[in-house]
């Protein structure tokens, strides 16, 4: 380390500090600052920038931090900044926001996912109602990054969902609406027909039961629209062999 003959460099404490940390200290000739010209130039640069920042109402330590940050981000004669030579990467400053975004090396190494959902595809998204999962149908309208999407639900509402909260669906919006039952028609037995329910809604609607009937119909439509259809096996069930001698009628 080359330094001048200031008292802080010639003190006993500093002379003890240098050998303990493997620093070889050298002093310049008194009155010849050109010998230590590089350090003097850096000090002069710091003083000049501090004069230009005199109008800014900031503490001195914040001014010094900003000066050093900009200085380390400034390219040298070899085309690289001190920070880039030390950190092996380019550090971003406010000036970089004025230029177009460049693709970083880490983004180039990202492997494509095995499951990709494109814009315009039908999906069903997961919701939680009373801590229970529920699914709603919608369409992908926008992709945000690699894993997040904007989904427009069939109820004309947009939500943001992760790819793990969605599944592709072949059910179209028209099919969901056309499959909704009406008050004058009874569904087949495969659609979980409830005779007690239809005996309740088939009588003429009066002023006293209009509110209750409309609410029950809305709940039934909502359940039939978003609940999966239960499929039961139609195969013949043979009784166990050990029950052959028993009368099961």
UniProtKB/TrEMBL annotation:
GO biological-process terms attached to the record: DNA integration
Every Integrase catalytic domain range: 1-90
SUPFAM superfamilies: Ribonuclease H-like
InterPro entries: Integrase_cat-core, Retrovirus_Pol_polyprotein, RNaseH-like_sf, RNaseH_sf
UniProt GO MF annotations: nucleic acid binding
Superkingdom as given in the UniProt entry: Eukaryota
PANTHER family with a match to the protein in the record: PROTEIN CBG26694, RIBONUCLEASE H
Protein name: Integrase catalytic domain-containing protein
